[in-house]
Amino acid sequence: MRNLKYNMSIVLSILLFVLVSCQEDDALIGEIIAPTNVTLTAEIIGIDDMNPNGDGSGFVNIKATASNVISYKFDFGDGLSEVSPSGEVMHRFSIVGVNKFTIVVNAIGTGGLSSSTSVEIEVFSSFDDPEVKQFLSGGSSRTWYLAASEVGHLGVGGTAEIAADAFWFPSFFAAQPFEKCGIEISDCLCDDELTFSLDNGQLTYQLNNNSGTFFNASHQDVIGEDAGEDACFPFDTSGTSIVSLAPTSFDWETVPDPDFRPRGTVMNFSNNAFMGYYVSSSSYEILEISDTELYVRTLDGKNPVLYWYHRFQTSPAEETFESVFNNLVWADEFDTNGAPDSTKWTYDLGAGGWGNQELQTYTNESKNVIIEDGVLKITAIAENGGYTSARLKSENLNEFTYGRVEVRAKLPSAQGTWPAIWMLGANFDVVGWPDCGEIDIMEQTGQDKTKTSGALHFPGNFAGNAITNEISNTSSTTEFHNYAVEWTTDVIKILVDDKVFLTYANTSETPFNLDFFMILNIAMGGTLGGTVDPGFTQDTMEIDYVRVYQ
Fold it and tell me: What is the pLDDT of residue 256?
């Protein structure tokens, strides 16, 4: 876990060095003075003759004052901390029983200079939820994973102030199954491992994000980034967090749905820990929990009118693909030797880079495209100081909306070859690209033949901003594999050998609700082909069949 306290100290130390070293800065900021006259008081709620350590709620009002102060940093002694410019906080101590805590306040002045003081208190807390501890930890240690196969594995809704009729569930957005997996900008969310451990009644938590954290777009400033959208970034989440439990402060009796009454227990994590998706919050209310399922929500740390919802389970989510399309409506099995069937395929011809700085000239000659022994062969050839190749398309011959397209192919292995199996909106000649939409079922770069990729291009998400992901495919050039897209009104899934690696939620607003046609080609060089092997002579993409199911 990144230690934000440590980072702040570094920043303040650097600032102090600059201030001491530059007299001009001294004049701008003023004299560097450590705070003085630091005082700290703590008022335990509910103290009376019968309850000398409080009423069991664990609430304590804490107040600090000082001269020449900018802000205050409180460490409560229970593993939690808080910054308060006003010097006033209310904190809930939730360790069950009567416990002593040393509260420390650091009063921070100009240039980062600070002064501190402390006070010891003895607080009674009667709240505990042993069943939650048992569920979370399994009694010792248990790891949780995003329930990616469930609707709403990530969701967002409003508070009562902006969603009065639906503030207890993700009414603004609920991710569809695997929607937040298999997409480059969010793929790291789905491999998170959240481990809870229980030792002598103390619950702890560790997040293994496998090097990447999915950051909400509004919270990327914590790492000095701004992707303009939710995105994954490297982020250190090592270390252990203390988990303190407290009762919810939300009045669920105000919710109009009498059947929705959540657990009512809140988890507070020390060290700014969080549950996978980063929204600057370390406090999560448990809505539902069992031995295998966990459903929580948290307030957005910068936009406290938003609740974020997360679903977890005790086993990694795996998508089992079952197509909804089983009626074969069109196919080419390439069983007849010679030129491709002219009732099914036509050609793009010529050179010109094709918008990607490509190097080839496309032909319809048999040396570049032919059917032999039940296989379509598209061959790129070095000749006359350049390259020739072929690009087949079904435009104006076979076009369709929705379905499953499956292409069985073996790819070229030479450096610089850029094979592609893809689809383009049939209104391309009217609206142009990217307005027509593009579905890349399979592409492979010229420099890495161990992977293949899929992509979706459309207005707002095209070229370098396309929705894309890649998958390991180490035998792509030596064995045939099935490359497919499952395309419905609600979702587009791209697969290799029935393994989904890219999922996109289709809507009525996208161009993916009209006819598309298919394209098969090998490009040379260009933006994905890259540098061509100087010794290149020729290489071939072999296609066993193309099938369309609806």
Answer: 79
Amino acid type, 345: W
Scored b (16 or more CB within 10 A) or e, 231-256 reads: bbbebebeebbbbbbbbeebeeeebe
CA atoms within 13 A on the CB side of 213: 26
Give the per-residue pLDDT at 510: 96
Taking the C-alpha atoms of residue 119 and residue 62, their distance in angstroms, rounded to an integer, is 10
The pLDDT of residue 23 is 38
Task: Note the pLDDT of residue 183.
Answer: 66
State which amino acid sits at residue 245: L
The pair phi, psi for residue 221, each rounded to 5°, is -65, -20
390 in Cβ contact with 524 (< 8 Å): no
- Decide: 136 and 67 in contact? Cβ < 8 Å: no
Cis peptide before 434, with omega less than 30 degrees from 0? yes
Cα 227 to chain center, whole Å? 13
Q: One of 319, 438, 486, 542 is an active-site residue; which one?
A: 438
Cα separation, 258 vs 288, whole angstroms: 15
pLDDT at 184: 59
For the question of residue 438 being annotated catalytic, the response is yes
Nearest to 548 by CA among 435, 407, 417, 420: 407
Distances (CA, A) of 547 to 42, 492, 525: 73, 17, 29
C-alpha angle 93-98-100 in degrees, rounded to nearest 5: 70
**Gap between the Cα atoms of 492 and 469, Å rounded:** 13
CA nearest to 345, candidates 517, 541, 480:
517
Mean pLDDT in each 10-residue stretch from start to end of the chain (550 residues)?
32 36 44 91 93 90 96 90 93 87 95 92 91 96 94 92 82 85 74 96 95 94 90 93 90 79 91 96 96 96 95 88 94 98 98 95 98 98 97 97 98 98 97 97 97 96 90 95 97 93 90 98 97 98 98
Residue 352 is classified by DSSP as S
Measured CA to CA in angstroms, residue 518 lies from 425, 477, 490 at distances of 9, 22, 21
Both tokens of residue 225?
A: 């980034």
Residues 6+ apart with CB under 8 A from 70: 85, 108, 109, 110
The catalytically annotated residue of 150, 285, 319, 443 is 443
What's residue 62's pLDDT? 97
Q: Which two tokens stand for residue 7?
A: 């980072």
Active site residue 443: yes
Six-digit token pair at 260? 């929705």
For 454, the 3-state DSSP assignment is strand
Q: Which residue has the tokens 């709240």?
A: 127
pTM over 0.70: no
Indicate the helix (H) or strand (E) that contains 67.
strand 59-67
